[in-house]
Amino acid sequence: MKSMYYNIVLSKKGMDISYIINELGEERERYFSAVAPPIIQTSNFASSTVEDLRQKMLHEPEATLYTRGNNPTVTMLEIKIAALEGAEHAIAFGSGMAAVSAAVLSQVRAGDHVVSVKKPYSWTNALMRQFLPRFGVEVSMVDGTLADQYRQAIRPNTKVLYLESPNSYTFELQDIEAVVAIAKEYGLITIIDNSFASPINQNPLAMGVDMVLHSATKYIGGHSDTMGGIVCGSREMINRTFASEFMTLGAVLSPHDAWLLLRGLRTLPVRMARVAETTRHVVAWLERHAKVERVLFPFLPSHPQYELAQKQLRNNTGQFSILLKTDDIQKVELFCNSLQHFLMAASWGGHESLIFPIAASYASGKLKPTLPFNLVRFYVGLEDADYLIRDIEQALDKI
Fold first, then answer.
1. Cα separation of 141 and 128, whole Å?
2. Would you list the domain boundaries of the chain?
3. Measured distance CA(201)–CA(114) in Å, rounded
């Protein structure tokens, strides 16, 4: 039964991170004392009696009945992420976007209104601007760098304030505690995408946020080989989401993917520390380069939100963007194409360093860019800092 595991979480407040990652919820004596957790690769779980089946059906948010609902390998992951975020409960999904969608949909219905930060993750943007309005949910997008921008957008039918701090590509922060205070004043729900920071570097529930979500594909997985999403919150909120959006829409995380995410979780703290240190070296070098107009990175003392970043985040992570000092899109493309040790890809959070050029969105025939073509988003992985700097230097020399 799932509840047995979550009772462990609730009874061990203030747990050490090493205990959470390496021991919590594992109960190795139940699977031959194996060091690595098992992959319970089954779609179905049998019941010994009609009464046993009846009780599982009556208590499915906590019971192991069918892997589309609960699976022991997936549950182990949920336990650990919930504990890392200081949450009562968590639910895992097949992707980060499934987690975003379920969290938002669980709190709104036709006629409601959502206030969301501008420039969130691209598919979150699509959810807000295209999908929700189809079903009668209005959305207002605000800059969010000033908490009062949320207040000014609130209407009588507002239900949710949505945050992503820092947000995608340009990495503006929202003052989480200030936005939460506004939400509580108006009786609203706050939801935040915490993927940028990971549970290691920021815990929004401790700041009063109601629901915290992650694209586990990113830092939690850490190896660019699986996808997943997590939503954390109170037991009541998570159980309600499980019984409705999760079970109805079926965005299930497979047992094998959960196992891969558990594997990634083992090294999360050490990976985050390595990424943070390397990124600081790379950013410091870029900030001094004559061909870089600006580095967008909240942990630079020159950044207008530096003090807020220091307050909310325990450490920097591996994402930042640069604006190249050119008005020629061909030079931007030449720079990106000349990089030899940065892969060009859409995601981040793995061991390999990546770039994503906004120039790719221009003249594609599909996208309507809202960011300048000379913006290039970087993700720093686990390579050596000097190795990456030499690569960036030779690419900049070509423009």
1. 8
2. 2-266, 268-397
3. 27
**For residue 166, cis peptide bond before it (omega within 30 degrees of 0):** yes
- Provide the mean pLDDT of the chain: 93
What's at 349, amino acid-wise? Answer: G
d(CA 102, CA 118): 20
CATH among 3.30.1490.480, 3.90.1150.10, 3.40.50.720, 3.30.230.10 for 268-397: 3.90.1150.10
Domain covering 2-266: architecture: 3-Layer(aba) Sandwich (3.40)
**Residue 32 backbone zone (phi > 0: left; psi -120 to 50: alpha; other: beta):** left
Is pLDDT above 70 for 7?
no
- Tell me the C-alpha distance between 121 and 135, whole Å: 21
pTM: 0.92
> What's the rounded mean pLDDT across residues 165-187?
97
pLDDT per residue over 101-126, tens digit each?
999 999 999 999 999 999 999 999 99
